[in-house]
Amino acid sequence: MNSTVLKTDLALPADWRDFVALTKPRVMSLVVFTGLCGLLAAPVTLPPVLGFTAILCIALAAGAAAALNQWYEADLDALMKRTAKRPLPDGRMDRTAALHFGVGLGAFSVLLMGLALNWLAGAVLAGSILFYVVIYTIWLKRRTPQNIVIGGAAGAFPPLIGWAAATGDVTLLPLLLFTLIFLWTPPHFWALSLFVRSDYAAAGVPMLPVVSGHRVTRQQIALYTLPMGVAAVAPWPLGLTGWLYGITASALSIIFLALSLRVLANRATEPAEMGPEKKLFAFSIVYLFAVFGALVADHWLLA
Ligand code: HEM
Ligand SMILES: CC(C)=CCC/C(C)=C/CC/C(C)=C/COP(=O)(O)OP(=O)(O)O
């Protein structure tokens, strides 16, 4: 954080809606869904109360990480159109409230996970909060265009945490699910960054399209999509899932690849209303919901 005077220094008392907004609930929905699928695809079925507690802990931890991210970067959020109306830059909440909320929620989620489920799940949950806040937000985001490649690992942990909560260990399938989200994050984010490039440029954030331009970003998107598809399909030939998952993941990965090739072929330097980048970004979200949904359907219907 720099020492710029922000509206947040003069903030009004926030109401509960501002605290909900601080948890980035729409992004959290996919984080929680992948965590739930990791838990439901595990070979151990938890009693419903424990399963619910584990998912609640993942949701609270993701909300805590989002709050701490916004506590640290209120100055950046104030400079970008997309984020200027968030509770801190808009002056509806002061930074200390966001910090206390984030630390409290994060500590509570980790303790509850450790005590109610197991400490492996608790430790990985703590690690993912710290990864997002310290490695991505504080260390890498303002320094390198590789910020989201490395920092994106934070968002890849939830299925592994769900699995660890159910079984107390981590095997090849949750590691492949981690790898899938890890490789999905760059195309997901770089597609979006191509059409909000001017926001990042105005805020001085070194995202790939700002530093290296459209062409390189589009090449990198296509480059990550290939191993992402391999990681998505791999559990099927390895015998870790059945045909239902395998066929769904293959079909969706082919569509993802086709959309990324359209992005690669695009030469436009101004964002279009429904250009290939917007389509790929929207599809990236549907893709992850559908692949993880298929994993659970496969496990429960074919097991
Ligand atoms: C470093 C990694 C990531 C970065 C930088 C990133 C960045 C973004 C950004 C900037 C948005 C625009 C929406 C907003 O204003 O909040 C977005 C949307 C979204 N992201 Fe990501 N993302 C990352 C990883 C993830 C992960 C791991 C997930 C879930 C597994 C995810 C799920 C979503 C969803 C569901 C949306 C749509 C939200 C909406 O409908 O408004 N993202 N992402
Ligand atoms: C369990 C647990 C702790 C999960 C964490 C999940 C996680 C790391 C999700 C990352 C998603 C996300 C919105 C990144 C935004 O980057 P940004 O902060 O640069 O986006 P912004 O520009 O919208 O603020």
TrEMBL record:
Higher taxonomy: Bacteria, Pseudomonadati, Pseudomonadota, Alphaproteobacteria, Sphingomonadales
Homology family: Belongs to the UbiA prenyltransferase family. Protoheme IX farnesyltransferase subfamily.
Pathway assigned to this chain's UniProt record: Porphyrin-containing compound metabolism; heme O biosynthesis; heme O from protoheme: step 1/1
Pfam family, one: UbiA
Organism the protein comes from: Allosphingosinicella indica
Transmembrane segments: 27-46, 52-72, 93-113, 119-139, 160-183, 221-238, 244-264, 280-302
Annotated GO MF terms: protoheme IX farnesyltransferase activity
Record function comment: Converts heme B (protoheme IX) to heme O by substitution of the vinyl group on carbon 2 of heme B porphyrin ring with a hydroxyethyl farnesyl side group.
Gene behind the chain: ctaB
Protein name: Protoheme IX farnesyltransferase
